[in-house]
């Protein structure tokens, strides 16, 4: 491409982001881009722009040293790409981004006034938890076609199909009756038996006597779009709906290649053509997902032996074993028996050399496994419990609950929690079609952009680490290891899988094939 055209592309790219290049920085960048092919040019410029914006910029004028650091950062990213094929990211290692309403973009924690997260959170952390959930959904909803203002000069009919979001204080400030309003807020029960809608601007009492609920599980502490009319300090709800979901591709079109997911890559793995190619070429890759692996059960160990013998000829990429790892929790000998059970499992793996040398093993603790508490995110099983196992099986990782797995360009989230029952028990109103509970559940979680949209007294969360439970942008796969019946549901370009309880569901498990994004329902029959 001609130098003049490249210069124009670079200049317009920086201007679009409100940045100006110094002449020496511009010359340096042009020298760098000389060796870039026309096909890759746009992608490289985007990556450099992202790398520039990640740095703490004193002004909008980009100096030479800033540009040199950005180019170096991008070149390292390209070198690292091929090594970033498989990564397990613990919940406490997930990067934190905060939405800036002034800049209309997500900024990393170190570019804000927020303090570093701590397990013993402050009162501010608890307030921020709900504020950030609200802000995330608000900016997503405002971008949806139903809520974007009509284009100037557009047809009158187009304007009629648009809606405008109101805030709670807009209702409270009105002395007259307000009809046909839509408010985004969180359902709370500030007084027993009385529901309220809350947003950062205030709270308003709800009258739900005539409310219609769209599909989903509406629990306390979940965010809703409430449609109705306001009079005499009460919001009379006609209908409840969830904030619209947004595919990952749409989110990334707005926010570029920010790595929300975590892992060693400085930019999102979605931007890597090399990783995408590797993913498609490796057709033999598979992930075996098993939940409730009761290692103290003779029958479960026998079935795992059967599973290993079946996969010995073609070892899976990864076995994802979710807790609980004991059938009888909370006993005083639980830790001792778990260590012994892990030793038995290590011996079983060693009997199959192909699996031992080729497959990875990921262990995610369950709610009844030994640990400090049932608060999410849960840390991994303690080192003194797993030390012997890790020595015998080097390709094993004991990680947090929930955790994230990045395989090539795919993002996978795994959580071991009995969420379906919890959400059904805490519904404001249970859906009439009980047969379709899994679809209601998946829609709720994706609409909320959060793994546990429940009151904190039902599903406690470390306040400062609530961001680790976010589902934004929507990942490719979510594994809900739940004791509820197994299901596979695709929604918003996201595959949601529940393998069910291994011993309770007749030894069922799931096998995921990343190359074609399909799931195989599997079951172990008698020996």
TrEMBL record:
The protein, known as: DNA polymerase epsilon subunit
Localization, UniProt: Nucleus
Domain of life: Eukaryota
A single GO BP: DNA-templated DNA replication
Protein family: Belongs to the DNA polymerase epsilon subunit B family.
Main subcellular location of this protein, as a coarse class: nucleus
Domain DNA polymerase alpha/delta/epsilon subunit B span(s) in chain numbering: 287-487
Biological role stated in the UniProt entry: Accessory component of the DNA polymerase epsilon complex. Participates in DNA repair and in chromosomal DNA replication.
A Gene Ontology term for the protein's cellular component: epsilon DNA polymerase complex
Alphabetized InterPro entries for the sequence: DNA_pol_a/d/e_bsu (IPR007185), DNA_pol_e_bsu_N (IPR024639), POLE2 (IPR016266)
Assembly behavior: Component of the DNA polymerase epsilon complex consisting of four subunits: the catalytic subunit POLE and the accessory subunits POLE2, POLE3 and POLE4.
PANTHER family registered for this protein in UniProt: DNA POLYMERASE EPSILON SUBUNIT 2, DNA POLYMERASE EPSILON SUBUNIT B
Pfam families in the record: DNA_pol_E_B (PF04042), Dpoe2NT (PF12213)
Keywords attached to this entry: DNA replication, DNA-binding, Nucleus
One GO MF term attached to the UniProt entry: DNA binding
């Amino acid at each position: 491409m001609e130098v003049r055209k490249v210069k124009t592309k670079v200049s317009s790219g920086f201007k679009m982001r409100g940045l100006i290049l110094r002449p020496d920085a511009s010359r340096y960048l042009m020298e760098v881009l000389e060796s870039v092919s026309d096909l890759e040019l746009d992608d490289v410029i985007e990556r450099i722009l992202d790398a520039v914006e990640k740095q703490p910029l004193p002004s909008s004028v980009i100096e030479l040293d800033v540009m040199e650091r950005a180019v170096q950062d991008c070149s390292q990213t390209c070198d690292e790409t091929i090594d970033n094929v498989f990564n397990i990211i613990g919940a406490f290692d997930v990067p934190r981004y905060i939405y800036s309403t002034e800049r209309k973009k997500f900024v990393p924690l170190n570019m804000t006034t927020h303090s570093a997260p701590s397990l013993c959170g402050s009162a501010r952390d608890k307030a921020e938890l709900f504020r950030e959930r609200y802000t995330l959904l608000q900016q997503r909803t405002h971008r949806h076609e139903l809520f974007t203002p009509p284009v100037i000069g557009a047809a009158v009919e187009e304007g009629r199909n648009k809606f405008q979001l109101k805030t709670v204080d807009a209702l409270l400030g009105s002395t007259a009756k307000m009809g046909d309003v839509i408010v985004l807020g969180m359902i709370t029960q500030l007084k027993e038996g009385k529901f309220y809608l809350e947003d950062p601007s205030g709270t308003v009492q709800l009258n739900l006597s005539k409310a219609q609920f769209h599909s989903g599980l509406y629990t306390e502490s979940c965010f809703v779009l409430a449609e109705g009319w306001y009079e005499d300090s009460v919001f009379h709800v006609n209908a409840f709906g969830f904030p619209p979901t947004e595919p990952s591709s749409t989110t990334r079109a707005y926010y570029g290649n920010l790595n929300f997911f975590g892992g060693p890559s400085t930019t999102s793995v979605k931007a890597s053509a090399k990783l995408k190619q590797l993913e498609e070429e490796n057709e033999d890759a598979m992930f075996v997902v098993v939940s409730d692996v009761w290692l103290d059960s003779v029958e479960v160990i026998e079935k795992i032996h059967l599973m290993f013998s079946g996969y010995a000829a073609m070892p899976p990429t990864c076995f994802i074993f979710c807790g609980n790892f004991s059938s009888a929790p909370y006993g005083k000998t639980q830790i001792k028996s778990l260590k012994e059970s892990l030793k038995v499992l290590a011996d079983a793996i060693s009997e199959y050399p192909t699996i031992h040398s080729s497959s990875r093993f990921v262990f995610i603790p369950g709610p009844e496994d030994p640990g400090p508490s049932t608060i999410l995110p849960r840390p991994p099983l303690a080192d003194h419990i797993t030390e012997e196992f890790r020595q015998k099986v080097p390709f094993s990782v004991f990680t947090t609950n929930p955790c994230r797995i990045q395989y090539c360009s795919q993002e996978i989230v795994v959580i071991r929690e009995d969420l379906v029952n919890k959400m059904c028990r805490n519904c404001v109103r249970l859906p009439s079609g009980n047969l379709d509970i899994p679809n209601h559940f998946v829609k709720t979680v994706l609409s909320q952009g959060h793994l546990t949209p429940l009151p904190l007294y039902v599903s406690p969360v470390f306040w400062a680490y609530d961001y680790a439970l976010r589902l934004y942008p929507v990942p490719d796969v979510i594994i809900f290891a739940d004791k509820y019946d197994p299901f596979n549901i695709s929604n918003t370009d996201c595959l949601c899988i529940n393998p069910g309880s291994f011993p309770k569901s007749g030894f069922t498990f799931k096998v995921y094939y990343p190359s074609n994004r399909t799931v195989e329902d599997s079951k172990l029959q008698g020996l």
